[in-house]
């Protein structure tokens, strides 16, 4: 069982932004930038291009809506998107508020307090439609 499945089942806590029957979005615990969010299909699949076309399109649709909510919440030049999966073998889309190239490079990290994570997740969630 992947660490993200444990988050989905509630075994491990997360700063949840949004959820429906098929997808969940929560804040990355080690964010590149404030607002860095992961969008995850509840079905545990390792690689994104092993999803069916329909699952892939639905993941992109959910990610689109989350990106809009991030844009409304976190001041940034744009929201960037990346799919890697070398650390956690459960499909996830990284949505990252970008102000400079370093924000998408996974070497620059920011530290947030628990209170900051909680209020950020709530603010993005409030802007999710
Ligand atoms: P990737 O698999 O795309 O290389 O990276 C996995 C991402 O998941 C990393 O950005 C890492 O910070 C994040 N991550 C790993 N474990 C957890 C966790 O338990 N909770 C949360 N919220 N994020 C995690």
Summarize this entry quickly.
The protein is of the alpha+beta class and 129 residues long.
Write up this protein.
With 129 residues, the chain is an alpha+beta fold. The chain has one domain: HIT-like (HIT family, subunit A, 2-Layer Sandwich). 32% of the residues lie in helices and 19% in strands. It has helices at 3-9, 53-73, 114-126; strands spanning 16-19, 23-27, 37-41, 78-82, 93-98. A five-stranded antiparallel beta sheet has the order 1-2-3-5-4. A hairpin with a 3-residue loop joins strand 1 (16-19) and strand 2. Helix 2 (53-73) crosses helix 3 (114-126). The radius of gyration is 14 Å and the shape is globular. The protein starts with a helix and ends with a helix. It binds guanosine-5'-monophosphate (5GP).
Number of helices: 3
Q: Which secondary-structure class do the elements indicate? A: alpha+beta
What fold name goes in the CATH topology slot? HIT family, subunit A
Categorize the overall geometry: globular
According to CATH, the homologous superfamily is HIT-like
User: Which value, in Å, is the CA radius of gyration?
Assistant: 14 Å
Helix content: 25-40%
In percent terms, what proportion of residues is strand?
15-25%
**Termini Cα gap:** 30 Å
Multimeric status of the protein: single chain
């Amino acid at each position: 069982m992947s660490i993200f499945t444990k988050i989905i089942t509630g075994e491990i806590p997360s700063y949840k932004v949004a959820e429906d029957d098929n997808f969940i979005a929560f804040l990355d615990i080690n964010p590149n930038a404030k607002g860095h969010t992961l969008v995850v299909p509840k079905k545990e699949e390792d690689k994104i291009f092993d999803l069916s076309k329909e699952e892939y399109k639905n993941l992109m649709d959910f990610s689109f809506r989350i990106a809009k909510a991030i844009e409304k919440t976190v001041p940034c030049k744009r929201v960037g998107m990346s799919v890697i999966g070398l650390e956690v073998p459960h499909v996830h889309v990284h949505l990252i508020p970008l102000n400079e190239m370093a924000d998408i490079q996974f070497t620059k990290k920011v530290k947030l307090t628990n209170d900051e994570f909680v209020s950020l997740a709530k603010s993005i969630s409030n802007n999710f439609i």
